[in-house]
Amino acid sequence: MTNNTVKLSVTEQDVGCRLDIFLAKKINSLTRSNLKKIIEAKQVLINKNIVYSPSYKIRIDEIIFVSLDQKIEQDLIPSNIKLNIIYEDASILIINKPSGMVVHPGAGNFKNTLVNALIFKYKKKLSDLNGELRPGIVHRIDKETSGLIVVAKNNISHSNLGRQFNEHTIKRKYLALVWGVIRPLEGRIETLIARNKKNRQLMAVSEVNGKKAITNYKTLKVFDIKNVPRISLIECKLETGRTHQIRVHMAYKKNQILGDKQYGKKNIKFKKIDKDFETKLSLLNRQALHAKSLGFVHPENKENMNFESDLPDDFKKLLNLLEKLSD
Q: What is the mean pLDDT of each run of 10 residues along the chain (327 residues)?
């Protein structure tokens, strides 16, 4: 081991935890994926013995040494991509992310992400609490979801915002178009969400394990139009921020989001359909989900901050057509 080594002790409350999960809790600057690579690179010792498996179950009174010298990140390539910045100060940025943009690099996505654009514009003037691949990134929204995201310019702001997310005090509202009429029209969905057993890239509601997920929703309008399936415009307020949460909860309620390729309705066939609607629907090349508003306490000056964003054109055109056809 080297000078850049972290020493950790196992307590009773940690017993039985997977090694990679334990390390992810203790070393906030690295992701669980990064820590798995460190383990597999023989950079972790437990009681002076090398441990190769991320799934190793830790035991009471074990002493764990983690070397952080192993280079595990791929170099980021700055990209000159125009960002829709709706607010900026010395501590934070508020960005209106377009659909189709991945937030940070990962498997298969190392170019043209929001992070690539950020490092082109801000270089190293962003927080680094989330590791080398996620400078400034406090939270995410899905690639095919549009809307607001907050970026931290320094570690103090990042830490404070992270705490607000963990304490569920961040105010987030989304707009979505869903198939059918959700029952009841207004309510609260509280479930566990875990990895889908058949497809690990997807999430699913679970009865026995996973993380608690809470979505509050209300129906803003039901479109009951001739030659168009019933569609509802809903607003969702998140108490938690699990991966794909709104999409999973809407699929769980059998009111899938329009355009959702992963959780949506498959191979939809219409017996009789309004041609204008069919055209606009075909042009919606993503899920009709938009992160419309974001509210939090400013991490440094402690003022209440609230931001709103307009619907993007593809979502707006489909919604405007539904409004027109319902008149």
A: 77 91 83 81 87 91 82 71 97 97 79 94 92 90 97 96 94 98 98 90 93 97 96 97 97 97 86 92 95 98 97 96 93
Report pLDDT for 73: 47
List of residues 6+ apart from 138 with CB closer than 8 A: 127, 130, 150, 151, 152, 158, 161, 162, 165
In whole angstroms, what is the distance from residue 260 CA to residue 173 CA? Answer: 19
Give the active site residues: 142
Q: Can you name the residues that pair with 235 across neighbouring β-strands?
A: 175, 218
Contacts for 230 with CB less than 8 Å, ≥ 6 apart: 179, 180, 181, 222, 223, 224
Residue ranges and CATH numbers for the domains of the chain are 5-67 (3.10.290.10), 85-166 (3.30.2350.10), 171-326 (3.30.2350.10)
